[in-house]
Amino acid sequence: MGTIRLPGSKSAAARALVLSLLADTPSTLYDLPGARDTDLMLRAITVLGAQVEQFGAGQIRVVPPTQIAAGGVIDCGLAGTLMRFLPAVAALANGTTRFVGDEAASARPVAPLLTALGNLGAKASDARLPFAITGNGSISGGGLRLDSSASSQFISGLLLAAPRFQNGLQIAHVGKTLPSRPHVEMTLQMLRSSGVAAQQRAEYAWSVSPGPIRGLDMHIEPDLTNTATFLAVALATNGELTAPWPQFSVQPKDELLGSLRAFGAKTSLSTQNGQPVVTLSGRRGIRPASVDLGAISELTPVIAALAALAPGPSHIRGVAHIRGHETDRLAALETMLQTLGASVESSRDGLIIMPKQLHGGKVTSSGDHRMAHAAALIGLRVPGVLIEGISATKKTIPDFERRWSMAVGR
Questions:
Q1: Identified catalytic residue from 255, 298, 326, 334
Q2: What is the pLDDT at residue 57?
């Protein structure tokens, strides 16, 4: 049995950094992940006027500006959090801020958010990256209807900036589905931890009152999606792994463990050196399952890899929106799994994966860290899996290869 420890949550870190930029008083953040997305967010908040002082590994102090600065260029890389959290912040500046990013980022959906900002009084130069946001120094806010079927980050980005709107924000989602819904709750919880009045008013409606944002003094909790990815190693190898697992979390911790249990994992919660941990046993082996991953769609590639290793057919549902992630993940998974010998069918909102003898082969990460995770997991059971573009894992885990080798005991 081994123990794994992963860097802090990039999702929680992104929200904490945005709130630190908008706060009335300085913030101190600990355990920030040293990942590309977080580094880009740190640079972005300085472009918008924050002063950032690093005083230790993963430890920073953020002094917010009195007014959001315009005139800069924000590099979003391939991060949805930057291109969706910061436009509403940039709209608070008096002037124009440019947003650029990796070439593949131009395919990531952002148009509904930019349209919403237009309705609130800001101006967007285009409907996809690269674009520019021009504001006049304030946003009136008020009521807003928005289709966030492509990404719940549209809602989170507006909610994070809403305390700085003159009238706050009352936002209603009008689409048929809302992906990754627990991340909206994460946003609300972190707003409330900053002293903001933020609530869910109805099933698909939220409100944030205008008012002060208190500076944070916060430890970023471990990234539980990445932790679940590493725990899947135990399931793929019929082994056992233990990892920190907070008793209370802003992340969808129960849903993440539930998806692994659906494929045969046995999990138990306990304490180790006074800290809460989870132990996952894969000794019963992988079994096929039918799962809805709409709330935890970031784990879809890893779950698809487990499904390809299962002895029967599996069905992944509720993830149509991941066609607009770092790559078209459904298409990329279909190609990857078929290259390795799996039988895969696309459905309206997911994949159907049939049991078949897998074999080695060369696959690409498509520049997507989650695709690299999936290929690495299959490679634990199937000899000869070669991954082109493993460096994509630096997006969230800069030393992925070292940590992966430790998890598998190599």
A1: 298
A2: 87
